[in-house]
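User: I'm writing a tutorial on reading structure tokens. Could you give me a worked example: one chain, its sequence, then its tokens, then a sentence or two explaining what the tokens reveal?
Assistant: Sure. Here is the example chain.
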Amino acid sequence: MINRRIFYYIIYVAALLGVIINAPLKSSAQSSLPLHCDADTVEIRRIITGIQQSASADASMPRGQRIAAAARALIGRGADNSLTTDSAATLSVNVDTFDPMSFVNSCIALAEASETPGGAWRVYADRLRNVACRKGENQGFASLFHHTSDWIGDNIYRGNLVELTDRYEGARSKNWSLDYMTVNRDRFPAMADPELYDRIRMHEMGFRTHKVPYLPKQYVSKKEVIDDLRDGDIIILISDKDRSDYFTFGIVVFEPDGPHLVHFSEEEGRVVLEPEPLKRYFNLMTKHFSGFRLVRVV
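And here are its predicted structure tokens:
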């Protein structure tokens, strides 16, 4: 007859092996994302390698500069219309087409993947899921962010971002009702599913009269703001309209004449580097937004 102590030891080891074997499977499933196309895996590796080569020439290259390098590498990429054409509209590995939100998320994911030696598309996919999904968990359409306030708040809570907006004297706030998705349900095929619609509606109810901090437009020319800006900072132009909390947002990159914005332009249907410095760009677009927010990747 087997010794009782040995019996319990065997049970313990079997249970421990079960945890070890199953944990990676769960992690792998959580990290896996569908591919937009096979060519994206090659392109992701090319971009990551380019950032790494730049970093090797500057051993202290900060994450913000890596984000700016990723943004530059994506200039010219076209529009991703999956949210308004696809009944599933799930997060995918895609560096070919973008919308404003997916562009910023991809820049962050590419930069973070470049910090991993031999970083490949699977590392990119894992970092993309972490920043692009609520709680970092890919649960389909309902887990994607559709408002920058939601995206900022969740990523700040999980230690991915820090808000810079309210560090400046004169920062203001405005109450928004962020219900753009449910009010415009017919624009999004995925929301034809009643259960999914209810999940989005319940989530947006948490953003009724949501308090959004912002800086007045003229602060973009203030010395204290300009001096604080870094490559890779994220700037959000606050919408003048209710229901949605941004007009556009993107990545700050520095040119010889100062900070510029790289973003997905819905007007042009592609990722662009705005030719005018931020101050001039703000003046040109002044009728479309009421102020701006600044956040930084940690």
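What the tokens reveal: Strands lie at 78-79, 97-98, 161-163, 172-176, 210-216, 234-239, 248-255, 258-265, 270-273, 289-297. The radius of gyration is 21 Å.
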